[in-house]
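2024-03-11 09:14:02 INFO receiving multi-entity request
2024-03-11 09:14:02 INFO entity count = three
2024-03-11 09:14:03 INFO echoing inputs for audit
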Amino acid sequence: MQLMSERITRDEVAHVADLARLALSSDELDRFTTQLSDVLEHAADVEALDLSDVEPMAHPLPLVNVLRPDAIVRSVDRDAVLAEAPDVEEDQFRVPTILGDQP
Amino acid sequence: MRATELAEAVRSGERSATEVLDEYLERIEKRNAELNAFVHLDEDRARARAAAIDETVAAGQDPGPLAGVPVALKDNMCRAGEPTTCGSRILGDWRPPFDATVTSRLSAAGAVIVGKTNMDEFAMGSSTENSAYGPTRNPHDISRVPGGSSGGSAASVAADLVPLALGSDTGGSIRQPAAFCGVVGVKPTYGAVSRYGLVAFASSLDQIGPLAANVADSALCLDVIAGHDPLDSTSVPDHFVPVSPAVDAGVEGMRIGFVSQLGSGSDGVGGIDPEIDAAAKRAATALEEAGATVGEASIPASVYGLSAYYLIAPAEASSNLARYDGVRYGARVDAKTTAEMMVATRTAGFGDEVKRRIMLGTYALSAGYYDAYYDKAQRVRTLMAREFASAYESFDVLISPTAPTAAFKLGERTADPMTMYVNDVCTIPANLTGDPAMSVPFGNNSAGLPIGVQVIAPALGEFDMFRVAGAIEEALR
Amino acid sequence: MTDSVQEWEVVIGLEVHCELNTASKLFCGCANVFGDEPNTNICPTCLGLPGSLPVVNEAAVTKAMTLGRALGCTVSNSIFARKNYFYPDMPKDYQVTQYEEPTNSDGELALGDGSIVQIERAHIEEDTGKTTHVGGDGRIHGAGHSLVDYNRAGVPLVEIVSRPVIRSARQAKTYVEELRAVVLAIDVSDARMDQGSMRVDANVSVRPVGSDELRTRSEVKNINSLRSLGLAIEYETRRHIDLYEAGESPLQQTRHWDEAAGRTRDGRSKEDADDYRYFAEPDLVPLEPTQAQIAAIDESLPPSPALRRTRLAEAVGVDPADVAIVVMRGQDQLALDAVGIGADGAKTLARIENELAVEDWSAITADALADVVTRETTGKLSATQAKHVIAGLVEAGGTVDEVVATLGIASVDSGELVGMLDALIEQHEDEWARLADGDRKLQGFFVGQIMQLTNGQADGKIVQTLIAERLR
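2024-03-11 09:21:47 INFO inference complete, emitting structure
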């Protein structure tokens, strides 16, 4: 039996925060590690189930092939969208310099 | 006044939509400061809309089934040009350039949308305390929470600030606050009401539904908002069978099962207040007296619902909430590089509960843990759906308590997330299976706080669900 | 150089992205066009606005399956997945793609050189927006800022993933050319590398000849032309070999082709880059094509370029590789028809390849083409005249006689002119020899003589050309 505090380590929480683009203070890291461990400890019941003969369910309803015709539909005005943007230049969304490439 | 009666009065010209609206706006003016149910009022548009409806009536035309009925939207539903904040700082003063399908449907039916109601940030919570706009209070006792995450909608209906409101329900967010506030709250079948324009929390679980003071009003509203929408790929293609006629249809000959695991028995999910369990059983007895047969239904997988839910919902949320990155809309915290700007924006923009769930979901999906957590949780859904299907062979409809306890005090459960999460234990199964479920008020506890009884039906079984809900309500009269 | 020279073999797998030429985007009704004003083809869905939802474009699925079948793939039930990572050109900060259950899998492509490249999968996904760097030194890593245009976001793509069975830069180029021919033949994409509607990423590794191991690979991106593809593969191959020979190993990483410098450069190899947290896209439902649908697609497929090359090559009597261009341009039926009428095969092929390298050649008929070629091979038209006539036919259509009349070639039969020139050369042997030696003045003499003989009816230009041809 694992100890509660070992369900997720502080390093793992830091890694997950990084993946999710969140910065955590040292205090927050401690607190979130405990809290996430509690939730994962509760989830241990599910983790322990043998459900190899049960299919996973991604959708509550068995719908397939929901398609739309290939037709052009004009919807929103560019200016209305750009008016909501934090920063705009030459009708484009302006962002600070980008380090690193598209993966 | 009931929404059904209000609409009739406006349609017949007996009352004007403007006069009705003024009456409700006055009540909002009086009580909202204390309750904090509304975060945004669209008074000017509402007045213009009411005046237009009055003109329609004067011209001898029918404005529709919700003629002149004031309606509130939970603040995660889009209305073109109006702020949509989801109770979060990160959306800033974002105004969507489009209407949610429910917004268009309400307007087309003659409803007057008065504004947006408070909610837990991105619908993550069970108390409406996780809002950037401060907590909403329960009209029955302002030291207590209204439940959540649709707490603003539930409180606004309970305090009669509007006769109807829409909420969204991912793990119980319509039904639990309905129970806490003593109103009716409906989570329709997954796909019965379009999600287009509902800001996503967990896409495979989210459903929009009505909150109302009585079963007939909730039926009227559901009949307006339900139906196929080509803009939502997960929308049910079938015609939605109207439920209004079901409310008074009675339960003669129906087979009703009490879900034993959702009661206070030892094989159950645990933590159910015996007083609430007793109320749900009294409702069962009342249904028996009304002509139904009542038995005990068993859904053993119910005990895994909470765990499965708190893996699936955060996983989907971690992806759905990635787009709040400060690039295209909403708030931005400036920084030297785009990556740093994204981190700074998200760190400042999200509250703790949202961060917790994003991290939990990211973890559940990440390499090495996917099979143990996310995949396993999705299999629990199948298991649960099988057990429900087998219960529906013996029963037409199932009942249970809506929430394990009545409304608790503000601040009582904010320190430990798990104590908050267990609030959803009775409501989660219907989200995991996609089945319709609703909460109907059934008296008060010894402290005078409202108690809700949950009615669950098979997918697209809303008609039977409303027969039972109508009979439970009738039994209290 | 060390004494024992290790021989190396390159192992290449290609990922080719093709933008499908649908009218609208993959999940919304925005127009799918290249080159519009920034952010004019956007809507809540392709901008990922809160509350928006995707609905799959039926034509995109049909085109993707058509491509799959043209590549001999199995078309299966499929689901969409979310690939999660943060990047400003991706509106939702996840990409909707297919992961574990793609629409097309296990195909192959037969190349003109006789080799066969196995295809692992050809899945459907959405394109990203476009980021432009402003200020700094113009490169993305410099100072300054960037601007994002989401017109391309949500454009439907098919990513065709080959197995690592390609063994040379040349074969890689042939494979991409062939893929392009297939895509054009079934009209599912413009397949223009210069506009990015066809993009190639190359996975490159090397291993000792004779070994069947798969060593660490680098993925080269930002390849904008076939030429760059070859250069990038050659550069990367050399780099890997040099590293191994220096006792080092390459890193598994993404590298970018720097066209100006003629080399690849480090991309990011951030540790989190590979944890994409794929899961089934809950906003979309599975695709389950019926057997009837797949059969209808098979029915609709035109003959493959490989088959068309063989057919034309046999009709003309040349090697299949020699008809590749004509087949890629879709002019093989014209050639077959002209040859069927009786035109000389090799000449027909040459005239099509050289004279029909134009956007629109629809005005020329097989009859007219066969007529021109036959007149040329029988000496009734000179080579130059034949070219002029073909240009006229392309321009205005009609019959050869009509074009010849319009161009004024009808006045004197060029066969007649050739005869006159022959006679003149015989009569004026010295003058001809001097002209052949480079005395240009004498050209005028011969032209003048012919003009006299034809009473000025001959086209001076044509006469000059005839002389020039004879001198060659």
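2024-03-11 09:21:48 INFO post-check: The mean pLDDT of chain C is 90.
2024-03-11 09:21:48 INFO post-check: Chain C has two domains: 8-297, 305-471.
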